[in-house]
Amino acid sequence: MRGLRKRYGAALAVDDLTFTVPPGRVTGFVGPNGAGKSTTLRLILGLDRPDGGTALVGGRPYRSLRRPITHLGAMLDASAVHPSRKASDHLLWMAHAAGLKKARVAEVLEQVGLSSVGRRAVGGYSLGMRQRLGIAAALLGDPPMLIFDEPVNGLDPDGVRWIRILLRSLAAEGRAVLVSSHLMSELEDTADHLVVIGRGRLIADTDVRSLLAAASDDRVVVRTTHRQEAMTSLSRAGATVAAGESGQVTVAGLPAERIAALLTSDGIPFTGLNEHRASLEEAYMDLTRDAVDYRERT
Ligand SMILES: Nc1ncnc2c1ncn2[C@@H]1O[C@H](COP(=O)(O)OP(=O)(O)OP(=O)(O)O)[C@@H](O)[C@H]1O
User: Where are the transmembrane segments (predicted)?
Assistant: First the structure.
Protein backbone atom coordinates (compact mmCIF):
# COMPACT_ATOMS: atom_id res chain seq x y z
CA MET A 1 0.00 0.00 0.00
CA ARG A 2 1.38 3.38 -0.96
CA GLY A 3 -0.42 6.55 0.12
CA LEU A 4 -3.74 4.72 -0.01
CA ARG A 5 -6.79 6.93 0.52
CA LYS A 6 -10.53 6.28 0.50
CA ARG A 7 -13.30 8.70 1.35
CA TYR A 8 -16.96 7.90 2.01
CA GLY A 9 -18.84 11.19 1.96
CA ALA A 10 -17.37 13.36 4.69
CA ALA A 11 -15.48 10.47 6.32
CA LEU A 12 -11.93 9.58 5.39
CA ALA A 13 -12.04 5.80 5.91
CA VAL A 14 -8.41 5.32 4.80
CA ASP A 15 -6.03 8.23 5.01
CA ASP A 16 -2.62 8.11 3.35
CA LEU A 17 -1.85 4.54 4.36
CA THR A 18 1.55 3.07 3.47
CA PHE A 19 2.76 -0.37 4.53
CA THR A 20 4.10 -3.63 3.12
CA VAL A 21 3.13 -7.22 3.91
CA PRO A 22 6.27 -9.31 3.39
CA PRO A 23 6.45 -13.07 2.77
CA GLY A 24 7.25 -15.54 5.53
CA ARG A 25 5.47 -13.87 8.38
CA VAL A 26 2.07 -13.18 9.84
CA THR A 27 1.30 -9.47 9.75
CA GLY A 28 -1.46 -8.48 12.15
CA PHE A 29 -3.65 -5.62 10.94
CA VAL A 30 -5.26 -4.08 13.99
CA GLY A 31 -7.26 -1.05 14.91
CA PRO A 32 -10.44 -0.11 16.76
CA ASN A 33 -13.88 -0.57 15.19
CA GLY A 34 -14.27 1.68 12.18
CA ALA A 35 -10.50 2.24 11.86
CA GLY A 36 -10.54 1.38 8.16
CA LYS A 37 -9.28 -2.22 8.15
CA SER A 38 -12.01 -3.77 6.02
CA THR A 39 -11.93 -0.81 3.63
CA THR A 40 -8.18 -1.30 3.15
CA LEU A 41 -8.67 -5.02 2.47
CA ARG A 42 -11.40 -4.25 -0.07
CA LEU A 43 -9.08 -1.77 -1.79
CA ILE A 44 -6.34 -4.42 -2.02
CA LEU A 45 -8.80 -6.83 -3.63
CA GLY A 46 -10.15 -4.28 -6.09
CA LEU A 47 -13.64 -4.43 -4.56
CA ASP A 48 -13.50 -0.68 -4.08
CA ARG A 49 -11.52 1.99 -5.89
CA PRO A 50 -9.12 4.21 -3.93
CA ASP A 51 -9.41 7.99 -4.15
CA GLY A 52 -5.63 8.16 -4.01
CA GLY A 53 -2.55 5.98 -3.78
CA THR A 54 -2.09 2.37 -4.83
CA ALA A 55 -2.54 -1.12 -3.42
CA LEU A 56 -0.47 -3.69 -5.28
CA VAL A 57 -0.35 -7.48 -5.02
CA GLY A 58 3.11 -8.76 -5.91
CA GLY A 59 3.67 -5.45 -7.69
CA ARG A 60 0.42 -5.41 -9.70
CA PRO A 61 -3.17 -4.31 -9.10
CA TYR A 62 -5.34 -7.28 -8.09
CA ARG A 63 -7.78 -6.61 -10.92
CA SER A 64 -5.02 -7.04 -13.52
CA LEU A 65 -3.97 -10.50 -12.26
CA ARG A 66 -4.74 -13.59 -14.32
CA ARG A 67 -6.28 -16.32 -12.15
CA PRO A 68 -6.12 -14.00 -9.13
CA ILE A 69 -6.89 -16.66 -6.49
CA THR A 70 -3.58 -18.33 -7.36
CA HIS A 71 -1.83 -15.07 -6.36
CA LEU A 72 -3.83 -13.90 -3.38
CA GLY A 73 -6.40 -15.85 -1.37
CA ALA A 74 -8.79 -13.91 0.81
CA MET A 75 -11.54 -14.42 3.31
CA LEU A 76 -13.46 -11.22 3.92
CA ASP A 77 -17.00 -12.29 4.74
CA ALA A 78 -17.40 -16.00 5.46
CA SER A 79 -21.19 -15.81 5.31
CA ALA A 80 -21.19 -14.62 1.69
CA VAL A 81 -22.05 -18.05 0.27
CA HIS A 82 -25.41 -19.04 -1.20
CA PRO A 83 -27.17 -21.00 1.61
CA SER A 84 -28.59 -23.73 -0.63
CA ARG A 85 -25.23 -24.46 -2.24
CA LYS A 86 -23.12 -27.37 -1.04
CA ALA A 87 -19.69 -26.40 0.28
CA SER A 88 -17.99 -28.63 -2.29
CA ASP A 89 -19.98 -27.02 -5.15
CA HIS A 90 -19.12 -23.57 -3.89
CA LEU A 91 -15.43 -24.45 -4.05
CA LEU A 92 -15.90 -26.25 -7.37
CA TRP A 93 -17.14 -23.20 -9.25
CA MET A 94 -14.26 -21.20 -7.85
CA ALA A 95 -11.82 -23.91 -8.96
CA HIS A 96 -13.37 -24.00 -12.47
CA ALA A 97 -13.29 -20.23 -12.77
CA ALA A 98 -9.58 -20.21 -11.92
CA GLY A 99 -8.73 -23.20 -14.11
CA LEU A 100 -7.75 -25.34 -11.12
CA LYS A 101 -7.98 -29.11 -10.91
CA LYS A 102 -11.18 -30.48 -9.36
CA ALA A 103 -9.05 -32.45 -6.89
CA ARG A 104 -8.12 -29.20 -5.11
CA VAL A 105 -11.65 -29.04 -3.69
CA ALA A 106 -11.28 -32.26 -1.68
CA GLU A 107 -7.78 -31.24 -0.62
CA VAL A 108 -8.80 -27.93 0.90
CA LEU A 109 -11.94 -29.40 2.50
CA GLU A 110 -9.64 -31.92 4.16
CA GLN A 111 -7.20 -29.20 5.20
CA VAL A 112 -9.90 -27.23 7.04
CA GLY A 113 -11.58 -30.31 8.54
CA LEU A 114 -14.82 -30.17 6.52
CA SER A 115 -14.45 -33.36 4.44
CA SER A 116 -17.32 -35.17 6.16
CA VAL A 117 -19.78 -32.27 5.67
CA GLY A 118 -18.58 -30.99 2.29
CA ARG A 119 -21.73 -32.23 0.52
CA ARG A 120 -24.09 -30.46 2.90
CA ALA A 121 -25.79 -27.18 2.02
CA VAL A 122 -23.96 -24.22 3.53
CA GLY A 123 -27.23 -22.83 4.94
CA GLY A 124 -27.05 -25.51 7.64
CA TYR A 125 -23.48 -24.67 8.61
CA SER A 126 -22.58 -23.18 11.97
CA LEU A 127 -20.63 -19.92 12.09
CA GLY A 128 -17.41 -21.83 12.75
CA MET A 129 -18.02 -24.17 9.79
CA ARG A 130 -18.58 -21.16 7.53
CA GLN A 131 -15.33 -19.61 8.71
CA ARG A 132 -13.56 -22.87 7.84
CA LEU A 133 -15.19 -22.89 4.40
CA GLY A 134 -14.08 -19.27 3.86
CA ILE A 135 -10.54 -20.32 4.72
CA ALA A 136 -10.78 -23.31 2.36
CA ALA A 137 -11.78 -20.90 -0.43
CA ALA A 138 -8.81 -18.66 0.36
CA LEU A 139 -6.44 -21.64 0.21
CA LEU A 140 -7.93 -23.13 -2.96
CA GLY A 141 -5.49 -21.55 -5.41
CA ASP A 142 -2.48 -22.38 -3.17
CA PRO A 143 -1.57 -18.67 -3.24
CA PRO A 144 1.67 -17.16 -1.90
CA MET A 145 -0.32 -14.33 -0.30
CA LEU A 146 -3.31 -14.58 2.01
CA ILE A 147 -5.72 -12.14 3.64
CA PHE A 148 -8.07 -13.02 6.47
CA ASP A 149 -10.51 -10.44 7.84
CA GLU A 150 -11.30 -11.24 11.48
CA PRO A 151 -10.92 -15.02 10.96
CA VAL A 152 -11.56 -16.05 14.57
CA ASN A 153 -14.90 -14.22 14.87
CA GLY A 154 -17.42 -16.69 16.23
CA LEU A 155 -15.00 -19.58 16.67
CA ASP A 156 -14.81 -21.70 19.81
CA PRO A 157 -11.45 -22.06 21.63
CA ASP A 158 -10.56 -25.15 19.59
CA GLY A 159 -11.25 -23.24 16.38
CA VAL A 160 -9.23 -20.24 17.56
CA ARG A 161 -6.28 -22.49 18.33
CA TRP A 162 -6.60 -24.20 14.95
CA ILE A 163 -6.57 -20.85 13.10
CA ARG A 164 -3.54 -19.70 15.06
CA ILE A 165 -1.57 -22.82 14.12
CA LEU A 166 -2.77 -22.65 10.50
CA LEU A 167 -1.74 -19.00 10.06
CA ARG A 168 1.68 -19.65 11.55
CA SER A 169 2.25 -22.67 9.34
CA LEU A 170 1.19 -20.77 6.21
CA ALA A 171 3.77 -18.09 7.06
CA ALA A 172 6.39 -20.75 7.83
CA GLU A 173 5.84 -22.06 4.28
CA GLY A 174 7.00 -18.64 3.09
CA ARG A 175 3.61 -17.06 2.38
CA ALA A 176 2.67 -13.48 3.16
CA VAL A 177 -0.22 -13.58 5.62
CA LEU A 178 -2.25 -10.50 6.53
CA VAL A 179 -4.79 -11.01 9.31
CA SER A 180 -7.05 -8.29 10.64
CA SER A 181 -8.55 -8.06 14.09
CA HIS A 182 -9.97 -5.43 16.39
CA LEU A 183 -8.72 -7.46 19.36
CA MET A 184 -5.02 -7.43 20.07
CA SER A 185 -5.31 -10.49 22.31
CA GLU A 186 -6.31 -12.57 19.28
CA LEU A 187 -3.01 -11.76 17.62
CA GLU A 188 -0.81 -12.10 20.68
CA ASP A 189 0.55 -15.54 19.82
CA THR A 190 -0.05 -15.34 16.09
CA ALA A 191 1.43 -12.21 14.55
CA ASP A 192 5.14 -11.54 14.14
CA HIS A 193 4.55 -8.01 13.00
CA LEU A 194 1.78 -5.48 13.57
CA VAL A 195 0.34 -2.72 11.45
CA VAL A 196 -1.84 -0.62 13.74
CA ILE A 197 -4.30 1.88 12.27
CA GLY A 198 -6.77 4.30 13.80
CA ARG A 199 -9.20 6.61 12.01
CA GLY A 200 -7.75 5.46 8.70
CA ARG A 201 -4.20 6.47 9.54
CA LEU A 202 -1.10 4.42 10.27
CA ILE A 203 -0.31 4.49 14.00
CA ALA A 204 2.43 1.87 14.16
CA ASP A 205 4.25 -0.54 11.86
CA THR A 206 6.35 -2.58 14.22
CA ASP A 207 7.42 -6.05 15.26
CA VAL A 208 5.62 -7.40 18.29
CA ARG A 209 8.75 -7.62 20.44
CA SER A 210 9.73 -3.94 20.02
CA LEU A 211 6.17 -2.81 20.65
CA LEU A 212 6.16 -4.65 23.97
CA ALA A 213 9.59 -3.35 24.91
CA ALA A 214 8.53 0.23 24.19
CA ALA A 215 5.36 -0.11 26.25
CA SER A 216 7.01 -1.83 29.21
CA ASP A 217 8.77 0.54 31.59
CA ASP A 218 11.37 -0.27 34.18
CA ARG A 219 9.00 -0.30 37.16
CA VAL A 220 9.29 -3.06 39.72
CA VAL A 221 6.54 -3.80 42.24
CA VAL A 222 7.78 -4.94 45.66
CA ARG A 223 5.42 -6.68 48.07
CA THR A 224 6.44 -6.19 51.70
CA THR A 225 5.00 -5.97 55.19
CA HIS A 226 7.63 -3.29 55.96
CA ARG A 227 6.60 -0.69 53.41
CA GLN A 228 8.02 2.41 55.08
CA GLU A 229 11.45 0.88 55.72
CA ALA A 230 11.58 -0.45 52.17
CA MET A 231 10.75 2.97 50.73
CA THR A 232 13.40 4.67 52.83
CA SER A 233 16.07 2.11 51.97
CA LEU A 234 15.37 2.16 48.21
CA SER A 235 15.06 5.92 47.84
CA ARG A 236 18.36 6.30 49.69
CA ALA A 237 19.88 4.13 46.96
CA GLY A 238 18.56 6.51 44.29
CA ALA A 239 15.26 4.87 43.30
CA THR A 240 12.01 6.72 42.81
CA VAL A 241 9.47 5.02 45.05
CA ALA A 242 5.72 5.24 45.49
CA ALA A 243 3.40 3.48 47.89
CA GLY A 244 1.12 1.19 45.87
CA GLU A 245 -1.82 -0.86 47.07
CA SER A 246 -1.54 -2.03 50.67
CA GLY A 247 1.74 -3.85 51.20
CA GLN A 248 3.15 -2.77 47.83
CA VAL A 249 5.84 -0.34 46.76
CA THR A 250 6.36 0.66 43.14
CA VAL A 251 10.03 1.27 42.38
CA ALA A 252 11.56 2.97 39.35
CA GLY A 253 15.21 3.51 38.54
CA LEU A 254 16.74 0.32 39.96
CA PRO A 255 16.87 -3.17 38.44
CA ALA A 256 15.06 -5.97 40.30
CA GLU A 257 18.30 -7.73 41.29
CA ARG A 258 19.67 -4.57 42.90
CA ILE A 259 16.39 -4.01 44.78
CA ALA A 260 16.50 -7.57 46.12
CA ALA A 261 20.13 -7.14 47.22
CA LEU A 262 19.42 -3.81 48.99
CA LEU A 263 16.36 -5.09 50.86
CA THR A 264 18.22 -8.24 51.88
CA SER A 265 21.26 -6.39 53.17
CA ASP A 266 19.01 -3.97 55.14
CA GLY A 267 17.14 -6.95 56.62
CA ILE A 268 13.76 -5.85 55.18
CA PRO A 269 11.50 -8.84 54.46
CA PHE A 270 9.65 -9.00 51.13
CA THR A 271 7.42 -11.65 49.60
CA GLY A 272 7.31 -10.54 45.99
CA LEU A 273 9.29 -8.65 43.39
CA ASN A 274 7.66 -8.27 39.98
CA GLU A 275 8.99 -6.48 36.95
CA HIS A 276 6.22 -4.65 35.16
CA ARG A 277 5.83 -6.02 31.64
CA ALA A 278 3.16 -4.53 29.42
CA SER A 279 0.80 -6.95 27.72
CA LEU A 280 0.17 -6.51 24.03
CA GLU A 281 -3.31 -5.34 24.97
CA GLU A 282 -1.91 -2.55 27.17
CA ALA A 283 0.54 -1.49 24.46
CA TYR A 284 -2.30 -1.36 21.96
CA MET A 285 -4.58 0.64 24.26
CA ASP A 286 -1.76 3.16 24.68
CA LEU A 287 -1.24 3.44 20.94
CA THR A 288 -4.89 3.77 19.99
CA ARG A 289 -6.01 5.98 22.89
CA ASP A 290 -6.66 8.95 20.61
CA ALA A 291 -7.97 6.95 17.68
CA VAL A 292 -11.03 5.35 19.19
CA ASP A 293 -14.37 6.70 18.10
CA TYR A 294 -16.42 5.20 20.89
CA ARG A 295 -14.77 4.62 24.25
CA GLU A 296 -16.62 5.13 27.51
CA ARG A 297 -15.20 7.77 29.80
CA THR A 298 -14.70 5.68 32.91
N1 LIG B 1 -19.56 1.53 2.04
C2 LIG B 1 -19.41 2.49 2.96
N3 LIG B 1 -20.12 3.63 2.92
C4 LIG B 1 -19.95 4.61 3.83
N5 LIG B 1 -19.07 4.55 4.84
C6 LIG B 1 -18.33 3.44 4.95
C7 LIG B 1 -18.45 2.34 4.01
N8 LIG B 1 -17.58 1.39 4.38
C9 LIG B 1 -16.95 1.85 5.48
N10 LIG B 1 -17.39 3.08 5.82
C11 LIG B 1 -16.89 3.90 6.95
O12 LIG B 1 -15.50 3.92 6.87
C13 LIG B 1 -14.90 3.80 8.16
C14 LIG B 1 -13.99 2.59 8.20
O15 LIG B 1 -14.77 1.40 8.17
P16 LIG B 1 -14.15 -0.07 8.09
O17 LIG B 1 -15.29 -1.02 7.99
O18 LIG B 1 -13.12 -0.12 7.04
O19 LIG B 1 -13.46 -0.20 9.53
P20 LIG B 1 -12.89 -1.50 10.28
O21 LIG B 1 -11.57 -1.08 10.81
O22 LIG B 1 -12.92 -2.67 9.37
O23 LIG B 1 -13.91 -1.66 11.49
P24 LIG B 1 -14.48 -2.98 12.26
O25 LIG B 1 -13.39 -3.49 13.14
O26 LIG B 1 -15.60 -2.39 13.05
O27 LIG B 1 -14.93 -3.94 11.20
C28 LIG B 1 -16.05 3.74 9.15
O29 LIG B 1 -16.25 5.05 9.63
C30 LIG B 1 -17.22 3.29 8.30
O31 LIG B 1 -18.42 3.79 8.82
Answer: none
